[in-house]
UniProtKB/TrEMBL annotation:
Signal sequence range: 1-38
Species classification: Bacteria, Bacillati, Actinomycetota, Actinomycetes, Pseudonocardiales
Keyword Transport in annotation: no
Region (Disordered): 599-619
PROSITE patterns: FA58C_3
KW Signal (keyword) present: yes
Record's protein name: Discoidin domain-containing protein
Gene3D superfamilies: Galactose-binding domain-like, Single-stranded right-handed beta-helix, Pectin lyase-like
Pfam families: CatAgl_D1 (PF22815), CatAgl_D2 (PF22816), F5_F8_type_C_2 (PF22633)
Keyword list, A-Z: Signal
Compositional bias (Low complexity): 604-617
Domain F5/8 type C: 611-749
CDD domains to which the protein is assigned, alphabetical: CBM6-CBM35-CBM36_like_1 (cd14490)
Amino acid sequence: MSPSSVFSAPKFRFGALAAAVVAAAGATIAAVPAGALAAGRGATVPFVEQEAETAATNGAVIGPNRAAGTLAGEASGRKAVTLSGQGQYVEFTLTAPANSIDFRYSVPDSVAGTISLYVGGTHNRDIALTSKWAWYYGSYPFTNNPGDGHAHHFYDETRALLGTSYPAGTKIRLQVDAGDVTPATIDLADFEQVGPAATRPANSVSVTDYGATANDTTDDAGAFDTAVAAAKSQGKEVWIPSGTFTLGHHITVDQVTIRGAGPWYSVLTGPRAGIFGKGEPASCGTPTYPGNPAVPGVSSAVKLYDFAIIGQVDARVDCDQSNAIGGALGGGSVVQNLWLQHTKVGLWLDGPFDGLTVSGNRILDQTADGLNLHQGISNTVVTNNFLRNTGDDGLAMWSEHDADHHNTFSFNTVLLPILANNIAVYGGHDNTVSDNVVADNQDQGGGLHIANRFSAVPLSGTTTVARNTAIRTGVLDSNWQFGVGALWFDGRDSAITGRVDVTDNDLVDNNYEAIQFIDGATTDVHFDGVRITGAGTFAWQLQSKPSGSVKNVVATGIGRAGVYNCMGPDAMSGLADQGGNSGWTTTYCGSWPAPVYGSDNGGTTTPPTTTPTTTPTQPGGNLALHKSVSASGSQGGFPPGNAVDGDANSYWESTNNAFPQALTVDFGSTVSVSRLVLKLPPSSAWGTRTQTISVDGIKAAAGYSFNPASGNTATVTFPAASVRTLRLTFTGNTGWPAGQLSELEAYSS
């Protein structure tokens, strides 16, 4: 049995399936041929996916709804079916032979029970449902405490082998019978023809030879450790036979192959279940989150094939190394055909290291990222992977401290990240994102993100973004309270000066704007062949000025205007027009508008008849709240947006030891301002300090005292000034070598 045998026929290109779903889901893009949106892109998968809302049902179709934190909004395609009473069902019809089902569902929090599965009209089995791995609360880093509010991450997946293969045309029904859970919401189901379990290969040692026992709750980690050591010393593979094995700690590997009978058969579970290379950081080490000690070095020639890691992680704790795959895996290592579910991160890889291939994996229901290439990882190919329902970025390259470089994310399908982006590149050089399909991200991110953020080594060389399809991506950010783009650029830590080539991409049924620039300049970006097919607000949202070139960018179905621009008529002038552009000639500047979708997509149905050209009525209250803000520099983790988010406990901190520093707020239109209230966090931990601050063009530099005994607040007054932007320049701070503000509040009186 070859390492990729589970991907034997039939195979399905998920991009084409996603295109069909999109064409059915939104009037905005209904005229676009299904298949044309994502043809040849995304992962090739061994299953056929069917959406519940397109199946036969006597339940209630919910949605569409694009709002984060709603049951319909978190569903694939923004629709699902709720079964709320006995006898209600969703019935799928097989379009290809299958002997398994994996379905995505939601039940109320703190609920467990069953749903009844019927095949061809006959009761097959009861399938267990639980809320244990879903229903998170609060903002990052998420909790399981309902008292923290902000419920989200409602869905989970469960799977079952059906016992025999059923032909195309067979009816597969999920039904609420007496005693089953209600309400139960069904989002989708995947149907697969799973091949037989593989047999033990020659020249291998089995974990059962060293004391591991399947299908019980005893800790098998020691047996796995011994088997790995024996295999390495003897030049053999490690074999995981069919069955479920419990690991009390993760297994550290180097120069060894571990192979299972297939991801439907060989399963590792437990709160510490994972396979790690050397080089991972130590876990928290508390009694609540016990962890392995750090193991220095880099592992090489590690080959992981054909098994599942289905963990028991029900909360996000960032210092806990409860990931499925971790550490440093270089030197020709391979991670292939794994099923990774219910861990913190599918693959969190810590560099520097060189040379890894990650392919053909399913990464589902994570509390944080799907995969993160963290600091100094190079020549790594992440291809043909399927990801759904991650708690943070689906796929990310994060060049913290050391630059990631010459890596590729290609032919992946990334669906429904609950936070952040489907795919993100944070710094580094000469990386490629190509031929992917991404859809339905939920909050604080977009589909594709290129950024200098989180203390990443700044982008340089050439970053390539080519032949990707983003569907219903970009969100109303819960902090900023304005739309984030399906494709967005953020120079928050520093200007993006490396070249970025954006070629032959499709941005489809965008929730808000299609393309966004925010926080610092992007000075060398080149667009050639971008098709914007439906956008709730704008084709372009300019909150900083890009430069480079633009060619063959064609927009249709734009809800509000072609360009959001309150930065002046020269804002787009840095992008040299090389021809072939159309559909985005109108401009809007004003308060953030509601998006416009088709009438069946839950949004406003009538676009404005004219583009606003007059100054909006002067708003009341804090004029700076949730407005666009930028800074000359910021310390990682303390971005300028914190100064206008309405939360006095979060703060902006400029680049350290580099005065002067500036903080600029853009009100979006001309307003009258005569008073500023400047705040630092209201905590006694913030000792008294004096900051030297000027209001450019309005008030000369002066010292302002911040004392926690009086709320750490300073007030600046001046004669009323009519301004569109307001810049504060910091030239000194007696308490820290940087400019610092938790809130910049601006008032008209």
